Each structure stands twice: as structure tokens, then as C-alpha cells.
Amino acid sequence: MNNNDKIKNPREVAINVLHEVEYKDAYTNLALKKWLSKAALSNNDVALATSLVYGTEKNKLHIDSIISSLSKTPLKKISPWILIVLRVGIYQMYFLDKVPTFAAVNEGVKLGKRYESAKAGGFVNGVLRSAERNMESIKAKENPDYVKLSVPNWLLKLMTKYYGYDFAMDFFKASLGVSPLTIRVNTLKVDADELIGILKNEGVAAEKSNFSPECLVTKGLTNIGGLKSHDQGLYFVQDEGAMLSVEALEVKLGNSVLDMCAAPGGKTTHIAQKLENAGSVTARDIHSHKMLLIEKNIHRLGLDNVKSEIKDGLNLDESDLGKYDRVLLDAPCSGLGIIRRKPDIKYKLSPQKIHEIVQIQKRLILNAFDSLSPGGYLVYTTCTVNPRENEEVVDYLLKNRERAFVDDKLPEDIFRDIIDEAGYVKLYPNVHGTDGFFIVRIGIEN
Ligand SMILES: C[S@@+](CC[C@H](N)C(=O)[O-])C[C@H]1O[C@@H](n2cnc3c(N)ncnc32)[C@H](O)[C@@H]1O
């Protein structure tokens, strides 16, 4: 694409991303990446587009309730592009301090005209001007909790059932915030202190984190994937909770390891790193297009001890039985722990979807356990905080496999403060600052 054809307006990037997320089932993070690549924006405008996308999507239910109170046309009858333009406009006016109201209104009107019609631009003008006039009374209005937190009511009820009202509220409040940008040091190429120095020279502040020795927390940068040190494979962008699941696996040199749901390879590459680029990790995933991502990551990080295979973990081969010293099952899950990063998840989930996911998790965990060799470990992990997908799946395994037990002897130095009495590691954005994660190590009786 010629630079002249690229989008120069951060609000235009934002509405295109949100349109794809809303109407084409795209994921927020992937759609944003795609549209930023079609744009030529300054660093400040990249930051603005990113904040508009995430802020609008995270607060969507709350924003929609404001639009409903201002527009005579019911929400469902507002055309797709205009609804998105209005959401971005209201987000800037009600949730951001730094954007002047006239800019939010004028830019919205321009986009309404370009993406729909002059008449639609007039409608945007009417609603946003009314939003300006009525701001005080609208802000003073008491909304139900699920609207304030922009979370479907059934989901708030589900979390309240398991965790109580206060915790559920805190959890969803924290999920409206911004995730820390953490990276895993590629210890095959550098150590943590060296990498902190290299990043400093690239203008990025980074410091060691709380739990994982290989985790650095970076500050004030949106595009860490664009640095030279990234291309050189010195680190992998990853949440600390994800790193901890590999720490729980306690891989030893020479182990044979199976990663059953591996793409895009965050944990596979961590395991390969722990094996010091020797031994072997078998990385499987059901989706062939995602396997390419594993290959790309392996190559960038300079690893050559990974064997990647397209394979459905629901179908175990005879030859897999009792074969691996370590098995990682990073199961497909509802993703409730990562709605801070992928806010569209909370609107796309349903009780029925969760039910279907649990059935798959139960079948996968039996197959994962059956692949273990005597004395081996299975780590079951998810990025959800829903006990039906976590503790209940583990209970299902324990009921169905006599030799399985929860092994709580995780490395003391890392897990001392975060393992509970049942042997589970449960992380929450409102408690630990990490994504929401569940990690358990299962042993096999001889
Ligand atoms: C939580 S993600 C894995 C993330 C990965 N472990 C990482 O750290 O980068 C779950 C993965 O499970 C895969 N998956 C879903 N159903 C599967 C199945 N039946 N067999 C194998 N993989 C499956 C999905 O394609 C997805 O990539």
C-alpha cells in the first residue's frame, strides 16, 4: 500500500476496528493490529487510536445506555457505522479528559458523513451536541452495576455466585483498566539485567516483576513489537500468569514434553527455552493457520527443539499413551481472565458456549493425563477465573483417573505466596495485577 493511501486519522482507524469487531466477529487485538498496519500515524496517534478502540469496547454497554437516553432512534435502528461513530464520540466526551469536546463532535460528524451520508452526519451532530448539553445530568444518573461495569448481567451474576458481590465488582472494575505490558526474557540470548540495559538504550524502561524470574514489566510503550531487540528474539511479549504455568511444569533437561494446545507458541517457546534448546517439545494445535505463528516465533527466538504438529487433542494416538515426562494443557477456555486485553470476549460469551467449552476441557484433560509417563507432571492451565472450567475440570479428572493427584510441591521461591491450600494457583487482575489465570500441577501415582 502506497503511503499516500494509508489512513492518517486515528479515529478512522478506531471505527474500522470496532466495526469489524462488532459486525464481523473479529478480535479487538487482531483487528487493531491489522488496521494500524493500513495507517500512517505518529506514535501519539497510535496511542490515541489504541485507547479509543479499547476504551470504547470495554465500556460499550455503558456508552450504549448513554446513546439510548439521547437518541430518539432506538439503538437497534441506528445504522452500523453511525452507531460505532457515536460510541467513539461518547467515549471521548464522557470517559477521556484530554480530548476537547469540539474535536470529538466535529470528527464524529465528518466520519458520519464520509462513512454513511450527509444526513447521517447531521444525526451524529444532534446526538453528540445533546450529549454535551446533558453531560452533568447523565453523569449524575445512577446506573445498574452491570451497566457501569459494561458486563452482561448474567456474567456479573455468575461471578457473584462463585466469588461474592464485592469481589465480582472489583474483578470487573480491574478488567476495565489497562494491562501491564510484560515480556519474557529469552534466556538463551540474554539475561534479565542485560535486557533491561538494551531496552533502556532503545528508550524503554523495564523492571523485574513480582513472581516469575524471567518476567520484565515495561513502561509507557505501545509498540514493543517494533523494537530491534524484538526482531533479534531477545524477548517474547507475554503475561506473567502465562509464564508461571511453565514454571509449574518444572521442565528438566532431557525431558520429552507435549504441549497439547500450543498456538501461537508462547508457552511452547518458554518450555523450549527451559530445555536449553535441546531435548524436544512436541507442540500441537488443531488450527493449521495458528501453527504458522508458532513457526514464526520459534524462528525469531532462535529455537530448534520444537516439533510442531497439527492435531486435535480430543483424538489421542495409541503411540501417545504414557509417553511424555511433561504435558502442558493450556486449554481453550472462556477467556474471562483476559477481558482487559480482549474486551469483546465478555459480549461474545454465553452460558451455552461455556457449557460446550467445559465438555471439551474434560475430554482434553483425560487425554493429557493419559499421555503422561510414570513420575511425570501434567500442568492444566486456563486464562479464565470460572471454577466450572478450572476446579470442576480437575475434579472430573480425579474422579475418572485413580492415579491422578494434585501435586502442590511447586517451586517454593516462585509459588510460595500464590499457591492455595488445595494446591491451586489462581491469579486475578484485581489482586495480582496479572491476567486472570488458573494453574494446577497433576502428578501420576506409580
Ligand atoms: C489458550 S490457547 C493456547 C495458547 C498457547 N498455549 C500459548 O501460550 O501461546 C488454546 C489453543 O487451543 C487450541 N485448541 C482448541 N481446541 C483444540 C483441540 N481440540 N485440540 C488441540 N488444540 C485445540 C486453539 O487453537 C488455541 O490455539
UniProtKB/TrEMBL annotation:
Top-rank lineage group of the source organism: Bacteria
UniProt cross-references to InterPro entries, sorted A to Z: MeTrfase_RsmB-F_NOP2_cat, MeTrfase_RsmB-F_NOP2_dom, Nop2p, NusB-like_sf, NusB_RsmB_TIM44, RCMT, rRNA_ssu_MeTfrase_B, RsmB-like_ferredoxin
Top-level EC class: transferase
One Pfam family, short name: NusB
Localization in the cell: Cytoplasm
Record flagged with keyword Nuclease: no
Catalytic activity annotation: cytidine(967) in 16S rRNA + S-adenosyl-L-methionine = 5-methylcytidine(967) in 16S rRNA + S-adenosyl-L-homocysteine + H(+)
Binding site for S-adenosyl-L-methionine: C261, A262, A263, P264, G265, G266, K267, D285, D312, D330
Residues the record marks as active site: C383
Keyword RNA-binding attributed: yes
Principal location listed in the UniProt entry: cytoplasm
Any one cellular-component term (Gene Ontology): cytoplasm
Single GO MF annotation: rRNA methyltransferase activity
Keywords carried by this UniProt record: Cytoplasm, Methyltransferase, RNA-binding, rRNA processing, S-adenosyl-L-methionine, Transferase
GO biological process, alphabetically ordered: regulation of DNA-templated transcription
E.C. number(s) listed in UniProt: 2.1.1.176
Domain SAM-dependent MTase RsmB/NOP-type span(s) in chain numbering: 171-445
UniProt record similarity statement: Belongs to the class I-like SAM-binding methyltransferase superfamily. RsmB/NOP family.
Function: Specifically methylates the cytosine at position 967 (m5C967) of 16S rRNA.
Name of the protein described by the UniProt record: 16S rRNA (cytosine(967)-C(5))-methyltransferase
Organism from which the protein derives: Alkalibacter saccharofermentans DSM 14828
